[in-house]
Design brief:
This protein is an alpha/beta fold and 403 residues long. The protein folds into two domains: 256 residues, Type I PLP-dependent aspartate aminotransferase-like (Major domain) (Aspartate Aminotransferase, domain 2, 3-Layer(aba) Sandwich); 128 residues, Aspartate Aminotransferase, domain 1 (Alpha-Beta Complex), CATH 3.90.1150.10. The protein is 38% helix and 16% strand. The strands form four sheets. Strands 1, 2, 3, 4, 5, 6, 7, 10 and 11 form a nine-stranded mixed beta sheet that branches. The relative contact order is 0.16.
Length: 403
Amino acid sequence: MTSTTKVPFLDLVTPHQELKAELMQVVEKALGNAGFIGGPMVEDFEREFAKFCDTKYCVGVNSGTDALRFAFMAADVKPGEIIVTVSHTFIATTEAISQVGAHIAFVDINEQTYTMDPEKLREYLETRCEFDKTRGKLIEKASKRVVSAIVPVHLYGQTADMDPILDLASKYNLIVIEDACQAHGAEYFSGKEGVWKKAGTMGRAAAFSFYPGKNLGACGEAGAITTNDQEMAKRMKMIRDHGQAKKYYHDIEGYNGRLDSIQAGWLSVKLRHLAKWNESRRNLAHRYHELLTKVKDSVVIPVEASWTKGVYHLYVVRVQDREALQASLLEAGIGTGIHYPIPLHQQKAYEHLGHKAGDFPVTERIAREIVSLPMFPQLLYTQQDEVVSRVKDFLAATVVATR
């Protein structure tokens, strides 16, 4: 029997209905002045988001993918160089690397946080590479290529462990570009400096996505880059607009990666609610923790490391038979997701990298077990109770079936 209780994995209707009047005012403003590309609404949002992130500059672009790509270009990553990242992320992370002509090197993740494991990064840099003192460059031994940058991915709304990553980057003269596409408002406690820092403030630059399902989502495609580097910000603004220093004066070749003014206006409206929405996600996540405590031997709940204040873009658990759990929840009218079922190093698109099963054991293991439960700011406690009840029923039935 299918339950009449319906719990969507994500609700994008309710917040837009609640903000409809404000969102439509943005449209009317754009229709009234025909300012559809760039202009004051984009500049206002850039200023507001930079302030939210505690950075000096924000450059609005048309997607999180372009945000990463333009950040690499502005940081002067050269074709043929290596950028180190993780395989447990959305493909946009690595697409941006390839699109600037760079090469991808993967390292494994931490089994508790699912973000880049600093020790695995250290192992790669110190055993598979050597530092050329005369050039001041780190060289990968096998390929003889220069290693130029690291991209830690702040995943599921939790930051990577940045202090040791930044220490390694400093030691080997590497650029750090944060992939903060799932971490709007997340914070990291730097033990080295004794302060909390926002995602997007710790590397040379950081990329954000405003895909509709993100904590701060546009009503279409949009992205942004944050940085404290004035020259980088200036260069990224040129790159996004066909390399123009001013209209029809092209100092470099660029891209058409501009942010639409209507999207920027909508993002400004939503940004005013983001802190409240993030706190709601945190409260719901902690309530999930409490409700699932009694079955923690059968389900692995997210670990919020002591050095992070997560914003729970997703609430990801691990179970042994996630396909069966998904089917059981679907039968009860409960939506779920998987982020991400196949690690990038095992995707057909990256067969040419020559990786084999077992190269990144933690990534491969968790990819078989992860499942994302409903998580959005408007999720009701009654809906959450239903989700947990169904999860517990499934786990209890699984135990009985295996006896």
